[in-house]
Design brief:
With 281 residues, this protein is an alpha/beta fold. The protein contains 13 helices and 8 strands. Helix 10 links the parallel strand 5 (162-167) and strand 6. The longest helix is centred in the first third of the chain and has 20 residues, at 35-54. 39% of the residues are buried. It binds pyridoxal-5'-phosphate. Pyridoxal-5'-phosphate is lined by residues 68, 70, 91, 117, 206, 248-249, 264-268.
Length: 281
């Protein structure tokens, strides 16, 4: 037991320390997943998304697949980009910078669309905004952060507003980021009224880990749908203009049944990832 935890600590350390120099570059050493496996995982996820979304009764478009590539090598990103994948998600700032500025990515993936899905410290905002191909920041959860992004986006002379989602802490867990469900309308209203360089496009949640879908609809997903209905009603927005980013590897099909328009899938595509440390949220 002790040896096992020591090994896993070592593995985590190794993964973080050598991420840029080795892990992102040389997949044969640090992960067993081959590009072939990644492509087949990607096809499988695409197929499942298609099947479940066709069964939906509401008139919703097929959800967007965000391939969450954190800790995974650049070769695999390029590999599925070449098969047609465009949206990629990252949740560590430095890793997103390294990958998005990588010469091969810039050369071979000119139309890549990055989603930032991690916790944002305000002093990192301008770094995130410098990312070429930045498409959506999914994790805005307070007014000060929205203000900071709003100001910084304008400073960079961008013509179009930046798309953002509001992250909601639907499970009300202390260690999770996100605005509480009761405060969602207030934050969305603030952004719409005060942040002219931001375009509010939807709500995002991570939710409680390990929910057993056989017990019925995931309460986190239901809560996010309720938040959407409330935002739509209170702020008089057309609800088809409010996206829901919910669903990961374990539950993306279930999330689609509940109304997701944007699923964030990592390990089902790119393979196993060592469990993150508690502090990384
Ligand atoms: C890592 C991560 C994902 C993907 O998780 P998987 O279980 O590997 O699919 C999705 N969303 C966020 C915010 C993440 O940090």
């Amino acid at each position: 037991m002790y040896i096992k935890s020591l090994l896993s600590k070592y593995h985590q350390l190794f993964a973080t320390k050598h991420l840029e120099s080795l892990h992102l570059r040389n997949c044969s050493i640090s992960t067993m997943t081959s590009l072939e496996n990644v492509i087949s995982g990607w096809n499988d996820v695409k197929q499942k998304i298609k099947v479940v979304s066709q069964k939906r009764t509401q008139n919703l478009p097929e959800p967007r697949l965000v391939a969450v590539s954190k800790t995974k090598p650049i070769e695999h990103i390029i590999g599925i980009y070449q098969k047609g994948q465009r949206h990629f998600g990252e949740n560590y700032v430095q890793e997103l910078l390294t990958k998005s500025f990588d010469v091969e990515i810039l050369k071979q993936c000119p139309d890549i669309k990055w989603h930032f899905i991690g916790h944002i410290q305000r002093n990192k905002v301008s770094k995130i905004l410098s990312v070429p191909g930045l498409d959506i920041i999914e994790t805005v959860d307070n007014e000060k952060l929205a203000d900071a992004i709003n100001v910084a986006w304008k400073k960079q002379n961008n013509k179009n507003p930046l798309k953002i989602m509001v992250q909601v802490n639907t499970s009300r867990e202390e260690e999770k980021n996100g605005v509480l469900p009761d405060d969602v309308v207030k934050l969305c209203k603030y952004i719409i009224e005060n942040c002219e360089n931001l375009k509010f496009i939807g709500l995002m949640t991570i939710g409680r880990f390990g929910y057993d879908c056989s017990l019925g609809p995931n309460p986190d997903f239901l809560t996010l749908v309720e938040c959407k209905n409330k935002v739509s009603f209170d702020l008089q927005l057309n609800s088809s203009n409010i996206e829901l980013s919910m669903g990961m590897s374990d539950d993306f099909e279930h999330a689609i049944e509940c109304g997701s328009t944007n699923v964030r899938v990592g390990s089902n595509i790119f393979g196993y990832r060592p469990k993150k440390e508690r502090s990384q949220k």
